[in-house]
Amino acid sequence: MKTTLLLLLMALMFIMGCGEGNSDNDPTDTSTDSDTGNPDGTDDSDTTGSTDDSDLAVAYADNVCGFSEPVTLGAVEADGMVLVPPSHPDINYFGRVDCTNPTAISMAFPGVSIRAKFTGTAIGMVYDDHGDAVNPNFFNIIIDGGEPTVQQMTTGESTYELAGGLAAGEHTIELFKRNESNSGTGMGIFLGLRINDGEQLLPIEARPNRIEFIGDSITCGYGNMIETDDPDSYHFTTTNSNAYESWASITARALDAEVSIVAYSGRGAYRNYGGGGGETVPEMYLDCLPDTTIEVPWNIEQFTPQVVVVNLGTNDMSEVTADTLDSYQEGYAAAMEMFVETLRGYYPDSTIVLAVGPMLYSIGLTAVRTVCRELVDARVAAGDANIYFLNIPGNANLYGEDWHPTAATHAYMSGLLVELLTDKGVMPL
Question: What letters, b where the CB count within 10 A reaches 16 and e where it falls short, cover 68-82?
């Protein structure tokens, strides 16, 4: 399997992964699906119980790319702005990004965050977007910690004026990638910031905590920006899908954490939606860019989460029947057992949370809940006390696109997780 080969490669040599070297990546995989299901909303939630390596570790603590070398700003352009190269050491990156080409930072997974502190009255960026008219991509732009504004991207390389008319002095900016990879149309390449000539970037502190979410369309924030009682009439759009309002990002903000989101619609732990092709989530876990033909492996040293949250199973149980239940459940159980063991090997000191819901229902819900509870109980009995189960009830009222949870439901989901983590003393508010 692809994952096994990558693990062998990592064992044979030190991999800088997405942090060093040169690559030129084009998304070509065209497979994608979406989760569907009817949540039952009947269950109460419950929980049960070159530089040397040390320099790189310090760099990665503040920035998954770990850039530290000084850079030269671009020439003054007609509008009085200059380009700040993406490898500037005071640009902070979090989430799954490919840093192998320091002049072009590629990204595809949702939830990538680019943050900087700058002086001056204006800020912009240059970005090469792979979206199209049907599936445009969006970034949230957060200036000085205020409310996000939405920037719609255009296909190809473009220059964006993100903020102007600011008071002279220091400001902060965060660029937050709202959309998932989506068969490669969600991919883009960050080519740098633009600031006023004579101004500068300043060091910016990373948030103190780290949390990673692994999942499917739920965790991507698929269709979460609408509320409807007729979800069969509303199908996937990038416009209404927003990882910033997913339970992953809401939780990260509540816990003052940098977040990494490794999630892809329609994918499962053992079986993808409707038995569809493409990598499962465990198989793509070490990918930087899931929809490229060029392998760009992720180096787990770039991001060490205190908490890893896994919410997989909705797609594994898609179209389940009484006749297929046993085989689906057995396959899911084996895949989850192997994946959790792999994650524990990567992160021996991290808390792992296996979450179930909120889109599962009927026999599929029972199967996934049973597998995850039993897996947690077995690991605790074997001495792994740092793993928990979280049940998330379904929402029986309003829905997002294709029966997905709304932003309000994501906030509720986040509340359950934050309560678990704080009650267990894992991560304080």
Answer: eeebebeeeeeeebb
pTM over 0.85: yes
Q: Which of 178, 202, 226 is the last residue of a domain?
A: 202
Same domain as 275, residue 126: no
The CA distance from 227 to 223, in Å, is 9
Q: What share of the chain is helix, strand, coil (3-state, %, to 5)?
A: 25, 25, 50
Q: Cβ distance 251 to 211 under 8 Å?
A: yes
**So what's the pLDDT on residue 395?**
72
CATH number for the domain spanning 265: value is 3.40.50.1110
Which residues of the chain are under the pLDDT cut of 70? 1-60, 396
Residue 60 lies in a domain: no
Strand partners, 48: 389
pLDDT for the residue numbered 27: 34
Residue 189 sits in which domain range?
65-202
CA atoms within 13 A on the CB side of 424: 21
How far is Cα 247 from Cα 329, in angstroms, rounded to an integer? 26
The Cα 218–Cα 263 span in angstroms is 8
| 66, 68, 338 from 14: Cα distances, Å | 16, 19, 24
Any idea how long the chain is? 429
270-301 per-residue burial string, b: 16 or more CB within 10 A, e: under 16? bbbbeeeebbbbbbbbbbbbbbbeeebbbbbb
> Is the Cβ–Cβ distance between 237 and 257 less than 8 Å?
no
The C-alpha angle with vertex 282 and arms to 270 and 402, in degrees rounded to 5, equals: 65
